[in-house]
Predict the structure.
Amino acid sequence: MIPEIEYLRPGNLQEALQMLSEYGETARPIAGGTDILPGFHINSRRFRDIKTLVDISNLPEITAIREANGGVYIGGAVTFTDIVKHPLIREKYPMLADAAAQIGSVQIRNRATLAGNFVNNAPCADSVPPLLVYDARVTVRSLRGERHQPLGEFLLKPYRTQLQPDEMVTEVFLPPLPAGFRGEFYKLGRRRGVAISRITLAVLVKMDQRVIEDIRIASGAVTPIGARFPELEAQARGKTAEADFLKELAIQLGEQILQRTGLRWSSAYKLPVVQQVFYQLLRRICQ
Amino acid sequence: MKEISIHFTVNGKKVSLNVPSRKRLLDVLREDLGLTGTKEGCDVGECGACTVVMNGRAVHSCLVLAAQADGAEILTVEGLAQNGELYPLQKNFLEYGAVQCGFCIPGMLMSSYALIQENPHPGEEEIKEAIAGNLCRCTGYKQIIQAVEATVKR
Amino acid sequence: MKKSKFNIVGKPVIRQDGLEKVTGQAKFADDINYPNQLYGVMVRVPVAHAKIRSIDYSAIENHPALTTICDANDIPGAKKVGPIKQDQPIFCYQKIVTPGDVVAMLVGESEEELLRLRELVNVEYEPLPVLTDPRKALEPDAPLIHPELGSNLVIHHPLRKGDVEKGFAESDYILEQTYTTPFIEHAYIEPEAVIAIPREGNKGVHIVGSIQNPYTTRKVVAAVLGWPLAKVRIQQAELGGSFGGKDDIMNILSARAAVAALKTGRPVKIRYRREESIQESYKRHAYYMHYKVGFTREGKIKAMKIDIIADGGAYSSMTPFVTWRTVVQATGPYEIENVWTDVRGVYTNNPYAGAMRGFGSPQPIFAQESIMDEIAVQLGMTPDEIRRINGFRSGSITATGQKLEKHDVNVLTVLETAVRETDFARRWRENQQQTKKRLDLAALEEAAANPGPFILHKEDFLEPEEVLRKGIGLAVSFRGTSLGAEGVDAVAAYLSLQQDGSAYLLSGLAENGQGMRTTYSIIAAEVLGLRPEDIYYLDLDTGYVGDSGPTVASRATLMGGGATKVAAETLRQRLEKVLRRHWNLPETTNFVFADRTVYPENQPDRKIAFAELCNLAYWEGVNLATIGWYSGPKVHWDESVGQGPAYFTYVYGCQVAEVTVNLSTGEVYVERVVAVHDPGTVINLLGAQGQVYGGVTQGAGYGLWEEISVDQGFIRELNFDQYLIPTSKDIGEIVPIFVEGEERYGAWGAKSLGEPTLELTAAAIANAVRNATGRRFHHLPLNLEEILLGRKLYPTSKRGSV
């Protein structure tokens, strides 16, 4: 059931920030509403205190995708459908387009936004692993000013980020990717259609013949929140991509996930399988 | 009760009304406008029975606040047939046996309609993707897919 | 197809109710509202087993949003109902026996206000030990769910044929195995909704709802009100799917709505949201099945011993009948000399289980067809060979001692058709020889050492070319048509021709989405030489035609089709008589009715329009309306030994599933299912194909994803984000093939199809997975964890807890 709420529709970003500032803790921006409305319906604790919704879905300042500084800026209220369709993202950041195309259903993607996905910060948020390996930075605005932060720092723990009640994510910046990287986004669900992720992986690699010159690795749904694996990446740089080493790397990934996540109800399945599919993925992209 | 005034176009007709701000688009269509063709099946955006086309895109009307539809163009299943003439998708749904109990059909039609508007010649996989968010328990989807395929071939 | 003798039968026909369904005009129950209508909202207690001490409404009693409260004290008649045993209260007043239970209903104008108020009702209760494992239900210290019954045993069906011990002694091999299947949600996309309208004066109550079996609902409502049946009028709204699921739950909701409507004098509507629907409605039974089979070196099965426990949950509902079908069919379509079967249905504090498409057959078919394949593997045969050796033929004797005769016993025909279509044996053998290295997590766990079972060793990894494996598997079944020895089996159909040649048709069975109206219209049109669109099918209302029993057991085409044909033939004879008189033709003249015209068989040029003939008859004062009646032949049953001709005829099916298994993740994708069925005569080809596509897809869901899991009686999967049914992307090709066997019964031998299509798929998939992986899986569904771990994993936190 949707509780009694006040609905506000600011005409521009400045007005939106004023409303957030004024209403504070009890206000929440709403864009696609694909997390908030189901959350209301099941009476989720996370949404019980909301009294005011500030609709940011149509603010012109945050609904565009633009090319600048060699990279791409994606507005905070850009939907996954917009991302899937955008030629520049498909060309330069294909793993993000891939991940976006596998989120929910068409109906969900038509409403759900990129920023909403990682601000909600569910462990299984599909956009997070690709954003992490693309070194995405978020722009956060409030009446107090603007700050920029790597996504990895912005995300704190499940369903928690550094976002303050008066703040809003206005943009995500994907910096230019050095030449020679290729990668793959992997998603495992229980079903093919409209699946909630059991495991996601995003891996970018730059090969020099058989040698891994550079690599970026991120996972989702197997760690408390989507995360990079810097130690693993450091360990892989300069190594030859032989099957034996890739297996080692996959085992390391398993160990690190176990360390970060501890044992969960799902560990007996997920932990071995993530190593397995990570190895498969490395075999595919380290050719 | 907090109310909000909204103005939008539904099936080509301009509509203005005041509704409680907690109402969803689904509730306004069914309760205030009597458009009961749009169905309520799960309330969480999983079954797709409430799918309508909003500004050219298929959306779950259970996940859109009515207030968010202000200024929008909404098409529901009741608006597909024009001047008593069925839209080709509707004809093919009949001809290919795509309908059994029919509860998912309005949503299926709207998802298929949005697909065809955007991509007049989708392949089988694109059709499956377009209706993956519409659950059907009767048909196994096969005759629905055939009906959409037949529509885009003509 | 056998078809030239028909004009319409067997061809694809557009459904009668299609137009309103594609335009959004069709009125489902929640689309209907009455002026001055109130809503009813349920009060539940978050406990699985407890004694109710008191219910305190004082916090809400005077709230303006509350018109009244209904609980057990408001029920004038039967406080408990049930199709076989009356053990289920309309409102609980002594005990709570499962979390779906309802103690009271709040009634008022605003559903939302009531939803808030219900949280304030204070129920004091004394928790009791919770019984969730049906295997423990019959132990001496098990908590009694219904103490007044003295036992948790709902029903025990024994079957004794021959001498199993002798059979095992004569066997060269014995296989023994345990299989389990979970509770399953019907997952009709339309949740339950009903409105009760009090009728003026002494006329009673009118109920409109998403009701599968209006006559059953009428019985329950009348009993609860303490009224004669005739004062309760049930009308079926357009039904948004049922699959056996809108029976008991709708009877109870209808009764609650009726009680409230009569108490307030206003229409009362109840409509469920998905969570409430899944929480309170009944499920397909979870089964625990132990099979022991003895067979010879040559592949002949000598004996089968079967012990099955069905989890009936909190109420008996249809458990006695569901398990009865199980006991009849548990040995499969195989002739076995010595059989000893025990099927027991038991009470637990789990959600209650009742009718669902298949009705006690999908579970044993999974077990029996799994073990048949194991026999084949053990003997170095292919699955089709072992079935060829043991399968029923004309004249075979079933486990219940029934001789199969007087119809085409097509087990082997459907098998051969499917095998040929898929090149089965060759592909099955090839797949058996694949290398099948698998990420075997169970083995890893067993061998667990530092650093623990979850970290792989290098030798555990699969190489890319080892990941995907193909498998092919088949399953066959026989299925008794209609109700069998369960109950009275008779159906009415009302047909009324109008002066202009149009017609009204209505049977006492219900359109649940399956296309029954269209099927009957085709049958009437075929007999009368009309087109199906000339027949106007009326809305089902218990006031109009006789009680025809429930629309279950895939009996609609067989029984209602039979009744429709009788009605159409009766009217045709009356018209023929009129025409003979009119044209002065001899009594021996035969007529042809086709293309809306009628002519003597030997004078094709002497035509009269059907409409003109009707007009003629009308002016002659001929009665152009009739009620056709079709009743099944008597069957009988000896309960003590499970022997007798259980059903008057049978249908046969074989499905072949082709799968790809990902050995590193446990994903199974169904590439193709070839479904060969003998439903007797096919009436509407489009509808028949639709039944196959839909049934196979539901069956694939049963095989791979679907499970209602229960934590201390509480269901974990309360909506479609957790209860996963197949989407459009989840199943590959489905190929329906019909083998139309000869049959005496029904309309031109048209029998059953709805349930056969579903019951085989999971078993065929499981056998295909065995073929792909080299491993046998004994527990449905074959989800990711089952394939890699051999067991299920369940979340420890509840939905919405974050």
